[in-house]
Amino acid sequence: MPQRTPTEIVDDHESWRSRCINLIPSENVMSQRARSLLTSDMGHRYTLPGIKEMDGRLVENAYRGTRYLDEVESLAADLACDIYGCDYACVRPLSGHIAAMIAVNSVCSRGDSILAVEFARGGYPGYDEEEMAGMLGLMVGFLPYDDLSGNLIYDSAAELIESSRPGATIVGASKMLFPPEISRIKGACDGAGSRLLYDASHVLGLLAGGRFGDPFGEGADLVYGSTHKTLFGPQGGIVLTNDGKIAESIEQGLHWKTLDNAHWNRIACLAQALLEMKSFGREYAERLVTNSKALALALDRRGFPVQCGDRNYTESHQVGLDAGDVTTALGYETFEEIAKRLEEADIIIDCVGRLGTCEMTRFGMGKREMGKIAELVTRLLVEGEDVASVRSSVNGFRAGFQKIHYAFD
For residue 400, what is the DSSP state? Predict the structure, then answer.
């Protein structure tokens, strides 16, 4: 059998995903104009700053021909500062994980401790001692968390911050239904000399649209995250601050430490996404939250276990599920089996107990369509309908939503 070409594989992938309903909260889609910038000549180019010549003189940039790379990076950073209300933006991180490394490294030294949300409570696993935090030489403690309310236990968290005096306290998580009340632990952080960091990977688009609080206004020292979830840009990362000393520390920790080539085609693409967010972000964020509430309500009414019904379910792009409750209620051995079953019907979810409305919202879906998605999910998982029948309905429904919204195209 002849080997398939990369083009054939990618074409098959794109054809299949155009027929699917994607409910993964950490994925989104870019506009055609943004995607086109990824294939530009900037994908071949990069800069080489800070090189010393033989006589010891520092060369600002050892590579010439970078004037437009510098310009597009400045544009992206300026747009980010404007949108998020800050004085400094670093758009060079290649991922949200690297943005987290840069952020934590800018305020902590080896041997320091940090406090974060535990992975089992919906936190990001990179903050575990076995992962990125340990690689940076940091000790890790976990913030008290209330599973029922989907938020920190703030009084207990403040007491822990005051007693343990961590170098950094990190709020934000991979599973986020409600905005963290940053101001409730700001005083404890200041008193303990702990920098207050906000991992906003999942909610940068909501923040840009004014729908998930005001982190800097509430006391965050650093806001950072990935640029491809609710912020509908390319895969990458961003770090934001109003603190000049932190900004200087970030710059000192970049080249040949956490970064080399920053992929300026990606930065150009991010600049385009930020332009779109500046123009359409409020409308998009409003629809995103409305859709999440509608999907949660429709699933709940159909007997599918969802979380936080007493709080109107969610204020984000996510619908919360308790994987154990769902597995038990539907009669499966594991939640992974549920995810695989849905994938057979061309409904894509993750395996950690979240549903997301980012991508389907950008394809123009609204409250009515959220009800249809709930119907399709429950036809398969609750009513036991045949996979092929549900898949046919999914494909027919999805065919009517192919155009990217909230864009200039």
Answer: T
Domain stops at, among 241, 273, 305: 273
- The span from the CA of 225 to the CA of 248, in Å, is 19
Q: How many CB atoms lie within 10 A of CB 149?
A: 14
Q: Which amino acid is at 142?
A: F
Task: Please give the pLDDT value at position 73.
Answer: 96
Between CA 324 and CA 333, with CA 327 as vertex, the angle to 5 degrees is 105
Per the structure, the count of domains in the chain is 2
Q: Which of 253, 273, 293 represents a domain boundary (last residue)? A: 273
Same domain assignment for residues 173 and 322 = no
Q: Do 102 and 251 sit in the same domain of this protein?
A: yes
Pick the closest to residue 318 from 177, 146, 123 (CA basis).
177
In 10 A of CB 257, how many CB atoms?
Answer: 11
| Rounded alpha-carbon distances, angstroms, from residue 183 to 96, 188, 215, 356, 397 | 24, 10, 9, 27, 44
Per 3-state DSSP, the chain is made up of helix, strand and coil in percentages (nearest 5) of 45, 15, 40
Structure tokens belonging to residue 70: 């510098």
> Six-digit token pair at 235?
């895969």
Residue range(s) defining the domain that contains residue 368: 280-398
Q: What is the pTM of this model?
A: 0.95
Looking at the structure, do residues 324 and 287 belong to the same domain, yes or no? yes
pLDDT digits over 143-196, tens only? 999 877 778 999 999 999 999 999 999 999 999 999 999 999 999 999 999 999
In a domain, 18, yes or no: no
Please write the tens of the pLDDT for every residue from 358-388. 999 999 999 999 999 999 999 999 999 999 9
Q: Are residues 269 and 143 in the same domain?
A: yes
